[in-house]
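User: Okay, second chain of the day. Same drill as before: sequence in, structure tokens out.
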Amino acid sequence: MSNVTDEQSPEAQPNSPESPEGPSQPTLERPRFLMFALIAAVTVVADVSSKAWAETTLGGSARSANSIVVYKNTLNFVLAYNQGGAWGLFHGAADAFRKPFFLIVSVLAIAFIVSLYRKVHAGQWALKLGLPLVLGGALGNLTDRVTRIGVVDFIDYRADWVLAMNQLIAKLSQGWTITDHWPTFNVADIAICIGVGLMALDVLFAKRKSAHSGESLTPSAAHHRSVS
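Assistant: Same drill. Structure tokens below.
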């Protein structure tokens, strides 16, 4: 018969520091999704309110030629309606095809962004900022597709480098319009571009981290790999 007491018995020792209520749950989920929702909401509000201002100030439904010069020969505010996608994609397509297509694409993009954010780790700060920006921009433009005849654009930018780029493209693509104007855009487009850029940074950082971890093996780890 063993004289080992219950305090000395291995079976009596806890296997983990879990509380009687069960394993501790991570506490970062709620703040993470709160930040996600907050950034997306601020983006949508900024986009919708700026478009309402543009319609009211720059001509509204009359589509007048009113404009505001922000920086001479570089930046203007001019009202425009884009019934297509980026760079006027499907601009001339029939409504029966164009509207359902962009609605489906927008809904799928939103679902993908939300599902991807659920897998974000604590250290992926670029992805945590980029995804809600893209979501807010997508929701802002989706609102226009549902409630207006097209997406409201009002930021008109022009520069010599845009002209040079279009001249180069025109050499490769017959019929390409040569202009020094960047396609008119809005706040949602800015948020999407910044968000995509942050997502690209996250991919770059992930590759660098992976390469660095592969090169920083300790001598004992390297020896273990060589003999295993």
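The radius of gyration is 27 Å.

User: Thanks, on to the next one.
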